[in-house]
Amino acid sequence: MSGGDVIWVREIPSSRWDLAIGELNDAGALAVLDGEIKVGLQRDGNSPGADSRIQVTIFAAVAPQSLNREIAASDVAAGMALIDRALRADSRLGDLFRRFGVVRAYVYDYGHGAVLVGDITEDWKVTLR
Length: 129
What we know:
seven-stranded mixed beta sheet, 33% helix
C-alpha cells in the first residue's frame, strides 16, 4: 500500500475523503481508510475483465502464518465498523456502493505486494483460504 496511487484517509469528512470519493466514482486510485484496521476502497473500471464493482479490502493485521479464525473475524469486524462509520458520515459512499456494487476481500499486504488470505461474504463473514 505504497506509491503515488494511494490516498490515505484518516478523517471523514476531509479533503482527502472528498478526493477518495471522486476516485471511487472515476475508477481511480486506491483509498485506504486508516483506522483500527486498514480498509481499502477501489473501483477498477478500466482494465480488461474489470467489472466496475467497488472492492472493499480488509487488510489483515498479522502475517498469514499467524492468522487464525479469531484474528480474521476480529479484523473483519473492525473493518466493517470502519465502513459503517464512513457510510453514516457521508451518504455518497452508500450511493456509490448501490450504483456500482461491492465485493469484499481479506488481504495481507507485505509491502511490495499483497496476498488474498480470505473471502468475505455479503454479511461480513470471513473464511480463510
